[in-house]
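To whoever is covering the structure queue this week,

Two jobs came back overnight. Logging them here so there's a record in the thread.

Job A:
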Amino acid sequence: MSNSILIDGLRRALGLIFSGDARVYEAVSVSLWISCTATALASALGLPLGFLVALKRFRGRETVITLLNTLLALPTVVVGLFIYALVRRGSFLGPADLLFSPWAMIIGQVVLAVPIVAALGQTAVSSLDRAAQETALVLGASRGRMLLTVAWEARFGVLAAIAAAGGRLIGEVGVSMMLGGNIEHHTRNLTTAIALETSKGEFAVAMALGLILMLLALGLNFLLRWLRGRGEVAS
């Protein structure tokens, strides 16, 4: 009986995907927009931090590296709780009316992704040969030019860090549910829609959303493996 339900659900799910069902593709578009925006913002914040930690020697550097690595496993519900406390009515950011909006979800996802980008970016830069960087400075290259050279040499590792952050965010559910509220046509993304449709007994829709989510995650993982492979070849 369970097998027939599963097979029927998969058959109907594929029908919904190929028919362009609005519920399915609206959730996909919300997920992609929020996750891509959050990944871009997290990269803009996390990469400079990762480069700084990799290239500078300062007191407490090892502690910062340990903290970044610890935050890689930061629970999404904990992030959701703290951001909720900041954006709810009567709080510090309450007047901005961010709660249950896409931007609240983006803020939460940025907090999740910055440690990923920073930690993996730091690892990518630290693995480079420092002799080339020091030689460039001795020969008169500006610090800005040296940083551009480092960024180019570490490009595959940096792109892998960004891809890893995107992969974490596309399947994230805790922040999305707590800060977005799962509002139809507004904040309902793939993960929150899957939870809702499953609770309603709409297994076909939930499976369709799940299949798309798995395909997106699979694509990002293939990209991540390819980038890591290119990075190893380049080094």
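Job B:
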Amino acid sequence: MKTYRELYFRGTAKQLSEFVDQIGKYAVGDWKIEKQSERWKDYLFFDYIGTHVDKARVSIYVSDKISKGELCVGNIVPVEKNELSVDEYNAVLLKFYDDVIKPFKESGTELSVSQPSDDIFDPTSVISETALKKLKLFCSAANKSTGSSHPCDQERWFDFICQTVDDGKMFDYSTLASFLQDEVYWGKKPDGFIGVMGSYAWDEEHAYELASEYENSCEVLCYYKKTRGI
């Protein structure tokens, strides 16, 4: 499953402040940094005006993030169309890193600048290894025509849900729904296969049903733990 790449900048408040002050000098050629206005004083905006990738605006939210020791590329929005695909978004981020951030990184800064993250979704970036093992157990043994309704499937499903809540590391609705349908990760149902169990991805309908069940269950469990001090 393809996912959006991320780019982080970590360091002391002084190092991050210097980054904010100096990075505009590296926005040259096909890049320009927008002057900060009163309305957008908490953001850095970099506009790509070239032709190698989609024309887009890269934004970095500053505000109180400097005191917390971390900045990141928060969003990339298109200039000439309504939205960017995941691949188009990632292409702009990589272009931004190569053209603007890498020269700054090579200038001798002590700021820690990450490499752009991978574009293939890693479930352990969201949930724990233990939780992932429980999800795999549920998915491999579940009747994929009935979701979590069978008692045995339900027990494994609930075990996975409870694990993520206990870990404090949970999927959001859309990410889980997309992940459950990922044929690259889970496998594709063989043509002509009439079975309902096995190592293959969930169909769209059941994936979204499970994601909805998951989201609702997590909300209830989190509320229960919070109000009872567990």
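Note for Job B: The beta strands are 8-10, 31-33, 43-48, 56-61, 70-78, 112-113.

Please reply-all if you pick these up so we don't duplicate work.
Q.
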